[in-house]
Every structure is written in C-alpha cells, then in structure tokens.
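Page header: ASSEMBLY MODEL / two components / 575 residues total.
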Amino acid sequence: MSGSAAVSVRDLSFTYPAARKSPALLALSGVSFEAEKGKSLGLLGPNGSGKSTLFKILATAAHPGSGSISILGHDIVRERAAVRRSLGVVFQHPSLDLKLTVNENIRFQGRLYGLSGPALSRAVDAAVERFGLGSHANSAAETLSGGMRRRVELAKALLHGPEILILDEPTTGLDPAARREFWRHLQDLRSERSLTILTTTHLMDEAEALDRLAILDRGRLLALGTPAELKATVSGDVLTVESAEPQKLQALMLDKLGIKSRLIDAVLRVEQAQAHLLIPRIVESFPELAQAVHFSKPSLEDVFLGKTGRRFEIGKKEGMGP
Amino acid sequence: MILAAATLFERELLRFYRDRGRVIGAFLPPVLFWLLLGSGLGSSFRLPGTAGPVGFLQFFFAGTLMLIVLFTSVFATISIIEDRKEGFLQAVLVSPSSRLAVVLGKVAGASAVGFLQGLAFLLFVRQAGFSPSLSGWLVAALAMLLSSVGLTSLGFAIAWKSSSTQAFHAVMNLFLLPLWMLSGAVFPIQTAPPWLRLVMRINPVSYGIAAIQESLAPAQGIAGLPHLGASLAILTLMSAALAAFAALIASRE
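Prediction written out in full:
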C-alpha cells in the first residue's frame, strides 16, 4: 500500500527536551500509520495525546525525533522543500495578518509559495470566488467573523494547489453552524479533486465523518481504522448505570445477576450484545441503588474508553505536554 | 527567495504606513525631544573645539535622526514577536521560502521604514542651521541607511529570541537606548570622562552619528570625530556583521 500512500509515518518518536521547570517529555512513541491518497484521515485524541506534536512534525514546523516520515515519496527531513510545496497547512491558531486585507493575505501567501504574475492573480481570483470572499476581498482581515477568517485560512492553504491538506483542530472556536459550513467546503473540495486530508480533532462528530481515524493516547497509537471498524471493536451495546454507591452495586450485579461491569468515573459500564435486555433486570433487582440506566450503541468515545479505561473528556483535563 | 523576501518587505511597509499611530509614534517623540532639549539647552551649550557657535539644536540634530531610526526599526522588529504570537509567522515558516528570505525581507522592510522616516526628518536640516551640499546630503542618507540596517538587524536578533514584547522593551531600555545615548548623540565625545570615551569609541552607533555630523557640516571641523571615510567603513562592517548575526540566529531553531 505504500505506493499509494500520500503520507507514511514509520516508528515515529518525539521527546520534548527537559526545560528549567519541566522534565523531558515523551510526546510520541513508536507511532506508525499511512494516509491513503485522496482520503481523509483524522488524528483523534484528547489534549496531551500527542496529536498536536504529530501535526507540527507533519507540517514541517518541528523535526521528527526518531523514525521516518515520507510525504508523496519525499523524505520529510531530507527533501523538506519538496514536501513543503506539496502541503497546504491550516493551523489551529489563525495565521492571518489582521492588518492586511483578505486579498493581500491570500496574495502574499501565494508569493511565499513561489506564485507570481498572471498565475498568482488567477489563483487569487479563483480562491476568492471559490470561498465566497468576493464582498470582503478588500476588507481588513480583522473585520471578519470567525467563520469567515477560517475560510480565508483555507483559501490560503489551498492557493498553491497542494495535494495534501493538513489541519490542526481547524474548527476550534467556531459555532456549530460555522463548523458545518467549514466541513462542507472541505467535502466539496474532496469531491472536486483528489485531495488527501489529515486533520487533528478532539470532536467526535467531526471524527465520525472522516474516512479513517488514528486514535492517539499518551503518545501512542491506540487504534487505526474506519469509524465503523473501530466501533465494531466494542463488544455489543453499552449500558451505563448511575448509582450513589456504585461499588456496592457493581458487586451485587456480579453476584446476583452475573453481569460484569467496569467502574469508570463513578459510573458503571456494561458492554455486551443485547444489553437492552438487562435494563429491566437491573432496575427490578436494585430499585434503590440503580438511579439511572442509559442504553446506547457504541460510539467512538466508547472505543477510546474501552482501550484506555479513561473517558475522553477526563484525558482532556489531564493535558500532558503541549 | 527574492520573491519571498520582497513579499515580506512589502508587507512591512504596508503595515507601517497603514498604522498612523506607529508613524506618529516613531517620528514625533524624537522631534519633540529635539525641539524641547534644543531650545532649552540652546546657547548654554558649547561644543568644544569649534570655530563658530554651534547650538544644541544643531548638535542634537544627528542624534535625533538616529533616535528616529532607532525607534522606527525597534517598533518594526517588535512585530516579529507579534507575528509569532498572532500566528502569521508559523505559516511563513512552513512555506518553501528559506529562513534567509524571511530575515532578509523583515530586516530590509524594517530598515526601509526607519530610513524613510529619517529621511523625512532630514528635510529640516536647514532649520537646524546646516547647509549641506548635495553630496553631504547623500552621504548623510547613506550613513542613516547603514545605521538603520545595523540597528534593525540587532533588533531582529533580540526580538527573535524574546518571548514577549515586554521582555523586548526591557532589553531595549537596558541596551539599545544606552547605545544611542553613548554615541555622541546627546553629548559630545570629547567632553566625556576617559572611561566613557572608551565605551563610546567601541559603540558602533557613534560612527553613524559621526558620519552624519561630518557629512552635514564638513567645514565646522568638530574635533574628536573620526575621519568620514573611516566612519562609513566601520559602519558598513558593523551593519553587515549584525545582519549576518540576525540571519544566523533565525536559521538555527
């Protein structure tokens, strides 16, 4: 498959060196995966999972520690210039010059990528048209709304016609409507031309819509596959049972009903096929202890939970490293 | 590389002249210093070893020019820190443009801004009591351009390493302002005590001041100034060295 891989990462590790107040930090450890040409791949993980470090390395903003990365067959270290030309990068933090107009922002970006003259003018006009920026082309970037600014970022990143687009939490700070619109633009682009998309995200609904996902936790690659494949690794359905005395209930459920459960964040979780049949038994057997029972089909959150024993959101607060 | 450098150069000029506050902030305070100090000290100031009377307004003219160049290039290089914080720089650094192009564009843009601001002040040369020849004008402008490149490169190197604009201001107050004060801009080198005279001789900014003073008033024969050609040569060397230093700082990392 490496022949058709747009991005190939092999055994990548990265350590932030020790600084005055913090010890050295292993941000990535033995990560390997491939991104297929023309498909989208999501790097999913809580803060501190290493996905932002991975983004930085793929965007050529940081050197890989050990291991190798090739992008369209070019080594990311030795053939940096070729790699950079084939990448369009959208950062989490905006990269617009707010004092310049939309048009100037896009034009200057094109020149940094070697476009000039009529070719540049054509590309800028096409981008302004494509992303519906016409009426704002001569406004200073600082006057635009958040959603509009993101569109300019996207226009900038795609101006030089890169084959691979990599994005770092691109919809951070956007309201749901603007987020949907941003993704609609990306989907349209995908259907127009073959564009490989690599994006980091910690939003489950965004991740669901991608072709494949790489789930990262504490610098390691936990799982790799389509959203459907990943969800299929969770055995059956998911029940969560809330109780004032979860430990007691856990023991009783096992003794009396033979139901195995895991206690995670003071909530009991049961994973098994046909789990809905257990609901009346639990409620009838422990009317006092069982305060709420929820049934759900497995989600990506459950995949993460199943592999780590921690909830996604909790991991988010722990935040180890940048 | 030239295209990328030219892009960043153009951006620097656009940003400066679009921001009226910065244009005024870099120009008006030095001019006010000049007028207030010049008028206040006025004729109580005597430049030793001069043939005719040289008032402070006249003596301080070259110092004011240098202060404008200093202020402007400092404000312009501080934008490197803002570029980093606001995110503009990250997009530049992952583009195929070389680091050298980034330094070149930024330093050239900021120097040009400092130079043009200085040039505007040079128009007041007659009000200051000078009557330079055309070549005097040109040499003064050249000295200013060289000083501007040197100071901007120094500012760039400091700003590249600074984590915040506050940190930059601290360095600037501790380092860049004394550099200006001890250059013969505010008081002449020959009235300074010997140890200070030594510091002033080592200070590269002194040669910028000397070159400007000499090119504007060659006939006045102010004692203690190095030869014009020597000043320009030292200035050129220093500016080139500082520019190379800035490029070196930015290409590591």
